[in-house]
Write a structure and sequence with these properties.
Elements (H helix, E strand, L loop, with lengths): L15 E6 L5 E2 L5 E8 H6 L1 H13 L2 E7 L1 H10 L4 E4 L2 H9 L5 E7 L2 E5 L16 H13 L5 E3 L5 H12 L9 E3 L4 H11 L2 E5 H8 L10 E4 L6
Parallel strand pairs: 3-4, 3-5, 8-9, 8-10
Antiparallel strand pairs: 1-5, 1-6, 2-3, 7-10, 7-11
C-alpha cells in the first residue's frame, strides 16, 4: 500500500510512546470504512495492548486499523515513504529527527512503560544478588564479565528498534563494548527475542509489557525467564 502526500498519520515514543502525525488520504476497506495504517513496534504488538485498544477505536471512529508490526527504525521508514498513517514508536531522538525532516505534523507522548533485564532463573551473572542500589551499569558489567568467562549469553534485538537503540545507549553509558561469543545480535522483534532468550538461557533487554504478556505470572511461559534487574531511572 502507498500513501499519497496530503494525508495525516501519527508516531508514538520512549518506553514513552509518542504519537507523531504524518501526511496522507485514507483508502477504503471493503466495508466502505476508511482504513488507517498503523506502523507500530513489535514490543507494543507483542504486549497484547492493541487487542484492547483497536476494537473500541474502530467502533468509535467507524474505520478499520491495519497494523504493521516492525522495529522503530522500520516504522519511521514507512512513515518517511508515506506507507503508514500512524507510527507508534519509542526512540525519542529518531522521532525528533523525523519531525525536523518534515515527515510529521505532530508528536505526542501517549503512554510509558519501563525497560527490564530478564534472564534465566539460575542467573549465572548474579544480577539478582547485586547490592541494593546497584545501577544498570553494574548489571551490564556483571553480564559482560560472566559472558567473557563463558558463563552467560546476552541476546541483542539487533533490529534498529527503539529497544535496540536503548540497549546500545546503555552499553555506551556503561563504557562497555559488547562483543564476542557471549553477545548475539539476532535481528528479531521483542516476542521472538524473549522466546530465544528462554530457549537459550540468555539475558536480554525487554519492555515490561511484552515480558508480562508472554512470561509473566499465569502465562504458559511463566518461570522460564525472570526479571533479574529493574528500577534504575535509566531504564
Amino acid at each position: 500500500m502507498s500513501v499519497r502526500p496530503g494525508r495525516s498519520g501519527l508516531v508514538i515514543g520512549g518506553v514513552v510512546l509518542l504519537v507523531l502525525a504524518v501526511l496522507a488520504g485514507l483508502h477504503l476497506h471493503t466495508t466502505g470504512r476508511p482504513v488507517l495504517t498503523l506502523a507500530t513496534t513489535t514490543s507494543t504488538y507483542d504486549s497484547g495492548l492493541l487487542d484492547a485498544l483497536i476494537p473500541p477505536f474502530e467502533e468509535a471512529n467507524r474505520c478499520r486499523v491495519a497494523v504493521v508490526a516492525v522495529g522503530t527504525g522500520q516504522a519511521l521508514g514507512l512513515g518517511r515513504a508515506g506507507d503508514a498513517d500512524v507510527l507508534l514508536v519509542h526512540a525519542p531522538q529518531a522521532e525528533v529527527r523525523f519531525m525536523e525532516e518534515g515527515h510529521g505534523s505532530s508528536r505526542h507522548a501517549v503512554m510509558r512503560s519501563d525497560f527490564i533485564i530478564v534472564g534465566p532463573p539460575d542467573d549465572p551473572a548474579g544480577l539478582s544478588t547485586l547490592p541494593e542500589g546497584a545501577d544498570v551499569t553494574a548489571a551490564l558489567t556483571a553480564v559482560a564479565h560472566a559472558g567473557g568467562e563463558g558463563r552467560a549469553l546476552f541476546l541483542s534485538r539487533g533490529d534498529d528498534s527503539g529497544t535496540h537503540k536503548k540497549e546500545l545507549a546503555l552499553w555506551a553509558a556503561a563504557g562497555l563494548v559488547p562483543e564476542g561469543a557471549w553477545y548475539d545480535e539476532i535481528g528479531s522483534g521483542m516476542g521472538e527475542a524473549l522466546r530465544m532468550a528462554a530457549e537459550r538461557g540468555a539475558y536480554t533487554l525487554s519492555d515490561l509489557g511484552t515480558y508480562l504478556a508472554l512470561y509473566g505470572p499465569g502465562t504458559t511461559g511463566a518461570g522460564r525467564l525472570e526479571v533479574l534487574f529493574e528500577g534504575d531511572p535509566a531504564l
